[in-house]
Amino acid sequence: MTLLFTVILVALAFEYINGFHDTANSIATVVSTKVLTPRQAVAMAALMNLLGALWGTAVAKTISSGLIDSNAVSLSSEILICALLGAIIWNLITWWFGLPSSSSHALIGGLCGAALAASNNNWGVIIWSQPSTEHFWLGKGVLWKVIVPMVSSPLIGGLLGFCVMALLYFIFQNARPTQINRFFGKAQIFSAAAMGFMHGTNDAQKTMGIIALSLLGATAAGQLENLPSMLHFLYTPAPASGQTLEIAVWIKVACALTMAAGTAAGGWRIIKTLGHKMVKLHPINGFAAETSSATVILGATALGIPVSTTHNISAAIMGVGSARRINAIKWTVVESMVWAWILTIPVSACLSYGAVRILRWFGWGD
Asked: Which residues are CB-contacts of 136 (< 8 A; sequence separation ≥ 6)?
């Protein structure tokens, strides 16, 4: 039981770090355009993250049952702690250097690395690709739920940002700059709120999936038998054949509140990179980027795809900047961001893999 509660606490710690690490994703543009002060933007993002985290569980179900074959490897509490530690360490490294990397991919990499180490390098424990009964054109597993969206969602976000910005330029080509700034200064509040809401719907659910996975494993191992009545809510039986694991309400609430608290702590290093270093933004640019990114995340969340909020808003900002002129983007900053994107899954996987190996070397978690 102690280890189980440790998993839950570490998972919530990851959720808190996710909150302040990814705060910049939803508020960098609205801060850099000076539509809202940093304090106002963080408060709004925290509220919208909270509301978004309580909406739907499709992504949580993907994390808990769509990436790792629980029949092939036992994801004990120790293994899940190592998976979370790999993700947390990478998140803190990229936060320190102000790089907007993906908390989502860090968690997925950590989960895969830990499972691989726990199974003694049996690559079959990772669900690479499976046909889907829900969406015939979209399969399950790491390939369809992680790799393909990792490439396609930023491309779609960038293209959509470019198109939305070009359309806005065409519509308002004869308007005065002061009128445009006044109108989009108000409109951007709504687009930033939508971005914060969509961040909550996708990112908060990943930790929900980890907690549900730990409770499922503890229940299957008989660790939750004879629980006192006050702790009976922890009991999580395996879903019926063909069904997905349902996420308990208390898990949703705990993760939502934790992410909101983390968001309230802010993430100013990454805000500086996204909102100032990469391209100079005006309210109309911020509105276009946030609207485009929120739209892509909405579609991904509906399909249960754990996409990166970071990748999407960054790509949307690039698209918006390119619509003005291609050299408006500071490509040296983009290059460092892309390297962080590429390295996130393998590095977090290696960190969690190493953590499991060290754990086993000391005789724990066998």
From this structure: none
59 vs 208: CA distance, rounded Å: 9
Per-residue confidence in pLDDT tens, the chain, 366 aa? 778 889 899 999 988 888 877 666 667 778 777 888 877 888 888 888 888 888 877 787 777 777 888 776 777 788 889 999 999 999 888 878 777 678 888 989 999 999 999 988 898 889 888 766 555 556 678 888 888 888 898 899 999 999 999 999 999 988 998 899 899 989 999 998 998 898 888 877 888 888 988 888 888 878 887 778 888 888 888 777 766 677 888 998 898 888 888 877 765 555 555 544 556 778 898 899 999 999 999 998 888 888 888 788 888 988 888 887 777 666 666 777 677 778 899 999 999 999 999 988 887 655
How far, in Å, CA of 326 to CA of 212, rounded? 45
Q: Which residues in 253-289 are b (16+ Cβ under 10 Å) and which e?
A: ebbbbbbbbbbbebbbbbbbbbbebbbebbbbbbbbb
Contact between 27 and 196 under an 8 Å Cβ cutoff? The reply is yes
Place of tokens 């000076």: 34
Q: What backbone torsions phi and psi does residue 76 show, to the nearest 5 degrees?
A: -70, 175
- The phi-psi region of residue 240 (left if phi > 0; otherwise alpha if psi is between -120 and 50; otherwise beta) is beta
One-letter amino acid for residue 289 of the chain:
A
Our measurement of the distance from residue 159's CA atom to the centroid of its chain's CA atoms, rounded to an integer in Å, reads 21
Check: CB of residue 20 under 8 Å from CB of residue 100: no
Q: Dihedrals φ, ψ of 68, to 5°?
A: -120, 135
How far is Cα 269 from Cα 94, in angstroms, rounded to an integer?
10
